[in-house]
Specification:
mainly alpha, two-stranded antiparallel sheet, 9 helices
Amino acid sequence: MPEKGMLPPVMVYGPGVRIWHWLNALAVVVLGVTGYFIGMPPPSVIGDTSTLYVMGWIRFYHLAFGYVFALLAIMRLWLVFVEGGVTLQLYVPAIWRRDWLDGFIRQIKWNLLMAKPLRYVGLNPLGSVTMLTMFVIPGAVMILTGFAMYAEVAGHDSWQYFLFGWLTMLFGNTLDLHLFHRLAMWVMMWFVMVHVYIAVREDILSRQTVISTMLSGERQFRD
């Protein structure tokens, strides 16, 4: 039985999406930190370079978690067909629904504390658009440009160059390739900060759980 003042919980996210979410969060943090130090190297450390291998380890973790991030992106697309439900909302906001625009405006007002929150089983309209434009698209840019940059190191006979080498020619030069890669990273870092703030705020102020939903899979609604 639900607790007093609570409506029955609704199962929102399956185990696959929840595992993807936390592994993806770890990958984004590692990529953000190591990517920053690759662009802005830390001060030189006194000692034997071959023993310390500071930048070598930073670059290794960045490349390793770059592969993890790319594989997780494929996993998330696969989960759309496996777990179904609201998993498609990350990629396709339901703008065709008659009440979508009203919900989008209402959510903006709620974030500005100008209206009461509405209840949603999955992503709210503003959240779905934000995640598409500030996570999915920048994430795809990071994956494509990241593999294109790695292709330059792997060589013209590598599978990376075969699949992603055309991007260097598309951008015209390596510098612009790096620029778009870093711009996508900063967009994603801004998204992470806003995402964490909104998730904590929703759990405290709204009538529905957010953080615990991504742990248990169930969303609970308060009266």
